[in-house]
Structure formats: C-alpha cells, structure tokens
Amino acid sequence: MAKKPMDPAVKIVAGHVSDVPIAQQVRDLAKGRPDLLITSPAESVQWLRDNIGTALLAGMFHRGGEIVHCLRIGEEGYRPLTDRDRDDDGPAQVRPMSTSHIASYIQLFYWCYKLVKDETTGTLRPVATMVPSSAARPAVDFPGEQPHLRRLRGVTHSPLPRADGTILDTPGYDQQTRLLYLPDPDLLVKPVPAEPTSAQVADALKLLRYMVQDFKFLTDHDEANYLGLLLTPLLRELAPPPYKLGVIGAPQPGSGKSLLAGVLRIVHGGVFRSEVPDDDAEMRKVITTILDVTTGPVVQLDNVSGVLRSSVLSGLLTSATWEDRRLGSNSHMRGRNDRLWVLTG
Questions:
Q1: pTM of the entire predicted model
Q2: 88-124 as b/e, with b when 16 or more CB fall inside 10 Å?
C-alpha cells in the first residue's frame, strides 16, 4: 500500500519505509501500534483487501451480504440495547461495519502516517494522517470479494457437536461450521471426548442432575423437559431450527423460575429481558434486535403474567429465519432463528 516518493534516496517496501532514519522516526511515533503508510485511496483499497479479516482486523466477518464486527462484552463498541438496568445482552454482539466504521477502526489500531518533505531540510519526515473512508467502500459493497473475510453463520459460547459428530471445542473461528466459538473466560470447560465411555456418559448425567437437584419439579416429566432445554443449544448443527418454546412456571414468586432459566444462560450464554413487550409491534422490534445484534443462543423473557397472545411470537417459533427492517434504519436484516426462547412467569 505504498507509492514510491520522488526522492530516490528513500525506498518504500511493503508499506514500510526502508530508510533507517525515517524508519526509526516511524517506530518512535507509532508507540507500539503497527505503522501503516497512507499514500492514496486506491492503494489503501488494495491494502484493506489484503488484510481485512486477518491480524488486527480478524474480528471482522462476512455475514448476510455485509461486513460485521464481533466484539465481546466490555470491549469498545459493545453498547447496551435497552436502558433497563436488569436487562442483559449476553457475552458478545455482532455489529454491522460501514465505511466510516472500518476506517475509524484502522485509525485506532494502526499508526497511520504519510511522508511529507520538510521545506527547511529537504528531507522526508513521517506525519500522522487519516485513513480515507473511501478506501473501505469496495469492501463494504463487495464483501464476498475480500479473500480473507470469513463467512459467519453464528456464534457459540459452549462446545457443540458438528454435523459429522466431531466436537467443536477449540476457541476461535471454525471453518467447517462457520461458527465463532467464544467461551466464557469465567467458566471451566473440560475437554469433550470424541467417543465417550459408558462411565463418562454416566458422570455427565450425574452432573446434569446435580445442577437441578434442589429444584422442586412438579413431576419427573418436568425435570426431563428442563434437561432437554439445557441440551437444545448444543444440537444446532445436528437438529435444524426452529425450536420449541420453553416455559418455566410456578404458582408463586420466589420458586426458582428465573434461577432455572439463568442456569441455561450461564451454561450457554444468553440474553435476558426483564419485561415482555406489550404489543406485537414492540415484540417485533425486540426480536429483530436480538437476532441481529446479540449472540447468546438462549433468550429469556421474564415475568410473564396472565395470558400471552402474540402472533409475532407465534410466527417466530415456527420459522427458521427471521426478516425485518432494522430499528432506526432503512437496511434490511435476515437472520437465522436458532435461539432457544424461554419464558418465565
């Protein structure tokens, strides 16, 4: 991404200055960030094509015809989707990247400079400069033409079996499933054997039963249904969506409904909404935003009371995909409805 300057005493190789004094100045000014020489928007386009989806830009992916950035909770850019304190958007978010977003991201993580001739000494010196937003336009318009931009089907926060029976348990991007595995750093994940023994299966079942042994299920069937909910997010590659709605009810407050649903979110990562939307229009907005931005495979809607009637929710539970206009935007989203939706009340 470099253009050879007129001064023959200075050489540019692979975007870096090979003249020792100038190179030292660049290193001093960069202060630990990789240096990036900006010469022209056209050459910046080529640099971005060669680098987007790799190194510092590895968090960007191709999803549904657009470039997105996947960021974890606590990272710059992770923004709450609601203003209710109790709500939780889960361990990660997926955000669409515009041309200005991509340029700003490069600006933050690279030290971008150009070479300017000093009028006094006649020598070239590095000067900080801005990444031209126009350089990202071809990538945004044609994400499928970027050779290192990986396609993202979804995100998982727990190990799960692939369609061929092998286990996805290595953090990072999985080429076979096109899923991004982002484990919770606070959870201990033990290696999953490819061919578990009878003893290991018995130990796993014992662990599952131990997790819920203090809950007073009405019948054994209720306990079995809950364990089925607990295992459902692991089957996304084996059993295609949509999945049945999980409803956890009790005759009085304080019975452990929210705690049981919370176990699902702790194990798999999930989204929590403390209130159920009052009407279908608001329900549609909530569903669209959750499927578009969040990554947790479990979605809990809390505190349902009375009779819940929603044609939008009914349509969601019978559809493998969801399409809608993004809130506050003219852009359209089409997402895979592979979430486990759970109500408590």
A1: 0.85
A2: bbbbbbbbbbebebbbbbbbeebbbbebeeeeeeeeb
> Per residue, what are the HEC states of 52-88?
CCCHHHCCEEEECCEEEEEEECCCCCCCCCCCCCCCE
Tokens 């680098």 label which residue?
Answer: 51
Q: Nearest 5°: phi and psi at 258?
A: -65, -35
Q: What local confidence, expressed as pLDDT, does residue 12 receive?
A: 40
Distance between CA atoms of residues 103 and 95, nearest Å: 15
Q: Could you tell me if 230 and 222 are in contact, meaning their C-beta atoms sit under 8 angstroms apart?
A: no
Average pLDDT value over all residues in the chain: 88
Burial 238-258 (b: 16+ CB within 10 A, else e): eeebbbeebbbebeeeeebbb
Q: What is the pLDDT of residue 23?
A: 65
What number of other Cβ atoms are within 10 A of residue 144's Cβ?
9
H/E segment holding residue 341: strand 340-344
Angle at 290 between CA 287 and CA 292, to 5 degrees: 105
Contact 16, 37 (CB under 8 A): yes
Tell whether the model's pLDDT for residue 145 goes beyond 90.
yes
CA distance 161 to 147: 28
Token pair for 257: 């409904």
**How far apart are the C-alpha atoms of 250 and 256, rounded to whole Å?**
8
Using a 10 angstrom Cβ sphere, with 0-12 exposed, 13-18 middle and 19 or more buried, the burial of residue 215 is middle
For residue 246, CA distances in Å to 30, 256, 301, 311 come to 53, 15, 10, 17
Sheet holding 111-117, edge to edge: 35-37, 111-117, 124-128
Considering only 29-33, 39-43, 74-78, 327-331, which range has the smallest mean pLDDT? 29-33
Among candidates 126, 338, 282, which has minimal Cα distance to 273?
A: 282
Express each pLDDT in 54-83 by its tens digit. Answer: 999 999 999 989 999 999 998 888 999 999
